[in-house]
Structures are given as structure tokens and as C-alpha cells.
């Protein structure tokens, strides 16, 4: 009995430290949010829709591209925590380097601002940040999958986003205040410094939670082949595992809905929302994420992972539809704040549902491989913001939102197939 109590104490400690690490990272990522902070900064530096699209696309592409090599190496390693340490502390350092660059750039003579070397330097460091971040995904999914039982994962993620939402609201207030009292570049430098500090805290908390022992059922054969064999096995899994294949298609379509994400702030700025209003919109986004957390956790753990996907897909459809309505009505800051409440709920739901469902369909002994294969096959879809930038440049910004609505409708068709597959699997 005492041994059982000790094990339960270890599980509780891991639960709350992993949730706390996620909350700190959520607050840090809000401070450098790609949909508001980075999109606004990039638009201010360059005025180019294509560059705004690149900044969003490279974050998602950089997250996905390292998955295959990291998954291949992690399957052959006894411990996955060293991979997490490299990626988590590395991205925190990259965010700190961006803060230093922007602070230095604020000293450039106003007549020459914005200098091209500053914009190029920021985009280069942002690309480094994105690629290092991608190393985290495989070890994080595997460690969390072993440390947190399936029945508590959605709840843990909901607590993560609840605590992260509180920190993100504080970050939004800091952004608005900084933009009011500091020169713009110094304000953005301050936000990246804040994000870096929170990411270092997140990394330390996650490492302190420890790594559970690997499943004794791991197959040694999975570690014997070369990289080509590992990729070939992933292609076989794609062909033979229908749930895996359908979820990948669903994710591709989801990337098409998220192509609009950096252009919500561009459309708001074009509609007359000032630079200080970016802080208000970030606060609304984080508030939407915060209040939606209990709902996502209850649906995911209480009703199941598929009902969670259905609900999130509806929100994916609602956000661009609401954006088109606001543009048609010539809405002001209150209307856009309401939209960003929806966006915040959508983004939290997307993350929780994606992680929960991918862990659900991944065998315990192959979770690093499944995570690597899935994210590698999904990587080309990360370029969708560039397609959005082309649509915005050649047609108009509303065309991006119309395309996102079409993709969300197609997601419903894929969900029907996943529902049927789940029904066939039931005894």
C-alpha cells in the first residue's frame, strides 16, 4: 500500500509539473504569438503580405520538418529527454536572441527605419527558432503519453492552457502597455524577452518532472533498420492504417483553415485598428483560450476524442465566417475583439484535439515513430500561409477567409468517415 501511495504521488507530481511546464510555455508563446505579435511586427517592418505569410509558414514548417530525423533517432535511444532539452532550451535561447536584435535595432536612426538588415536578421532568427522548436514535438508526445494516462490527457492539456491563458492575458496587458510607453521595436523586444524567460521556466519544469521508463513491449526490430527503412515503414503505416491516413487528411485540411491565421491581424489593421489595438486583440484571444479550456477538457475526456474534433471543426468554420461578416459591416475594435475570442478558443481546441487524437491512435510502443511520420507527412501543408499570402496579394484578403471556410467544410466530410471507422471498431 505505501508503495502504491508513493507511485501515485509520483504520478501527481508529474501531472502538475507537466501541466505547469505547458502553462509557462503557453504564456511564453503568447508573448511571441505568430498570429498577432509576429504578424504585426513583420507587417510593420516590411509591409509585405508575402513576408507575413512566410513568418507564419516557417513556424509551422520548422515545427514539422525535424520530426522524421528526431523520430528515427528517438526510437533508437533509451531516453527521449535529451532531445527535449535541446529543443526546449534552444528555442528559449533563440527567442532571447531575437529580443536582443530588436532592442539593438531600436537604436537605428529614424530616417533609415525600418532597416532591411534588421528585417532580414529577425526573419533568420525566427527561422532558427521555428526549426529548433520542431525538435520538441516527438519527445514531448512520447514522454507525456507515457506519463499521463489516456483518461487524464485532455484534462492535463486543459489545465495547461488554463494556466497558460492566465499568463497569456498578463502578456497581452504587457504588450499593450509596452506599445503605449515604448518605441515599437523596444516594445516588441520586451515581448520576446518575456517569452524567452517563460520558455526557460517551462523547460526547467518539464525536465524536473522526469521521464517514465520505456514500455517493455518496445520492439527491438524497430531500432535495427536504417533511415530509409524507417520512412518506408511510415509509408506502409499510412497505406494500411486507415485512422492514421484519415487523420492526416483531416490535418491537411485543417492547415488550409489556419492559412488565414496571420491575416486576421492584417485585415484588422487595414480596417483601421491601430498598433496599440494589437494588445487588445491578443488579450481577447487569450481570454477565449482561457474560458474554453474547461469545455475542451470535459469533451475530450468525457465524450471522447472524435466529438472533440467535431466541436473544434465547427469553430474553425465560425472564425473566418465571422471575419467576413465584420469586414462587410465595417466593424470596430469591439467586433474584432469578439472575433479574437473565437480565435483563442479555436487555437486551444485545435492543439488539445490534435495531441489527444494523435496519442489515441498511436500504439504505446511506437508513439515516437507515429508522431514523426504524421508530422513529416503533414509538413507540406505548413506552406498554406504562403498560399494565403498569394491570395491576399493577387485577389484580396477576404479570399483567404473564403478558402478557409471551404477547407473547414471539407473537414466535416473526413470526420464522418472517422466516425464510421470508429463504429466499425466497436464490438
TrEMBL record:
Name of the molecule in the record: MFS transporter
**Sorted alphabetically, which keywords does the UniProt record give?**
Membrane, Transmembrane, Transmembrane helix
Q: Name one Pfam family in it.
A: MFS_1
Please give the coiled-coil regions recorded for this protein: none
What lineage does UniProt assign to this protein's organism? Answer: Bacteria, Pseudomonadati, Pseudomonadota, Alphaproteobacteria, Rhodobacterales
Transmembrane as a keyword of this entry, yes or no, is yes
Q: Where are the transmembrane segments?
A: 44-63, 83-106, 118-140, 161-179, 185-209, 246-267, 273-296, 308-331, 337-358, 370-392, 398-415
Organism name: Leisingera caerulea (Phaeobacter caeruleus)
| Cross-referenced Gene3D superfamilies | MFS general substrate transporter like domains
Answer yes or no on keyword Transmembrane helix. Answer: yes
Q: Which domain of life, per UniProt?
A: Bacteria
Amino acid at each position: 500500500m505505501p508503495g502504491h501511495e508513493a507511485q501515485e504521488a509520483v504520478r501527481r507530481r508529474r501531472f502538475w509539473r507537466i501541466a505547469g511546464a505547458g502553462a509557462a510555455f503557453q504564456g511564453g508563446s503568447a508573448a511571441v504569438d505568430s498570429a498577432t505579435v509576429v504578424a504585426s511586427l513583420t507587417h510593420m517592418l516590411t509591409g509585405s503580405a508575402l513576408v507575413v505569410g512566410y513568418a507564419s509558414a516557417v513556424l509551422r514548417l520548422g515545427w514539422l520538418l525535424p520530426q522524421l530525423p528526431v523520430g528515427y533517432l528517438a526510437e533508437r535511444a533509451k531516453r527521449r529527454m535529451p532531445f527535449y532539452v535541446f529543443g526546449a532550451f534552444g528555442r528559449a535561447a533563440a527567442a532571447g536572441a531575437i529580443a536582443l536584435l530588436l532592442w539593438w535595432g531600436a537604436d537605428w536612426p529614424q530616417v533609415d527605419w525600418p532597416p532591411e538588415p534588421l528585417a532580414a536578421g529577425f526573419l533568420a532568427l525566427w527561422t532558427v527558432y521555428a526549426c529548433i522548436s520542431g525538435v520538441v514535438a516527438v519527445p514531448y508526445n512520447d514522454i507525456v503519453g507515457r506519463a499521463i494516462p489516456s483518461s487524464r490527457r485532455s484534462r492535463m492539456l486543459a489545465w495547461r492552457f488554463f494556466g497558460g491563458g492566465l499568463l497569456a492575458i498578463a502578456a497581452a496587458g504587457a504588450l499593450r502597455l509596452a506599445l503605449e510607453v515604448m518605441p515599437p521595436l523596444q516594445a516588441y523586444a520586451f515581448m520576446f524577452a518575456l517569452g524567452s524567460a517563460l520558455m526557460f521556466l517551462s523547460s526547467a519544469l518539464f525536465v524536473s518532472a522526469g521521464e517514465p521508463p520505456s514500455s517493455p513491449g518496445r520492439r527491438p526490430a524497430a531500432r535495427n533498420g536504417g533511415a530509409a527503412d524507417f520512412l518506408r515503414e511510415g509509408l506502409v503505416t499510412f497505406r494500411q492504417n486507415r485512422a492514421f491516413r484519415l487523420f492526416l487528411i483531416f490535418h491537411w485540411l485543417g492547415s488550409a483553415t489556419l492559412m488565414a491565421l496571420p491575416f486576421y491581424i492584417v485585415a484588422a489593421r487595414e480596417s483601421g485598428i491601430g498598433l496599440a489595438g494589437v494588445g487588445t486583440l491578443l488579450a481577447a484571444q487569450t481570454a477565449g483560450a482561457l474560458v474554453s479550456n474547461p469545455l475542451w477538457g470535459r469533451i475530450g475526456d468525457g465524450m471522447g476524442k472524435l466529438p472533440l474534433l467535431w466541436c473544434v471543426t465547427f469553430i474553425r468554420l465560425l472564425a473566418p465566417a465571422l471575419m467576413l461578416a465584420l469586414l462587410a459591416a465595417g466593424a470596430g475594435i469591439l467586433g474584432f475583439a469578439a472575433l479574437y475570442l473565437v480565435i483563442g478558443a479555436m487555437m486551444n481546441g485545435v492543439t488539445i484535439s490534435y495531441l489527444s487524437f494523435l496519442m489515441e491512435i498511436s500504439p504505446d510502443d511506437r508513439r515516437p515513430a507515429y508522431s514523426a511520420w504524421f508530422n513529416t507527412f503533414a509538413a507540406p501543408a505548413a506552406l498554406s500561409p504562403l498560399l494565403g499570402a498569394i491570395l491576399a496579394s493577387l485577389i484580396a484578403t477576404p479570399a483567404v477567409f473564403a478558402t478557409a471556410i471551404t477547407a473547414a467544410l471539407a473537414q466535416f466530410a473526413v470526420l464522418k468517415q472517422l466516425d464510421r471507422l470508429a463504429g466499425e471498431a466497436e464490438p
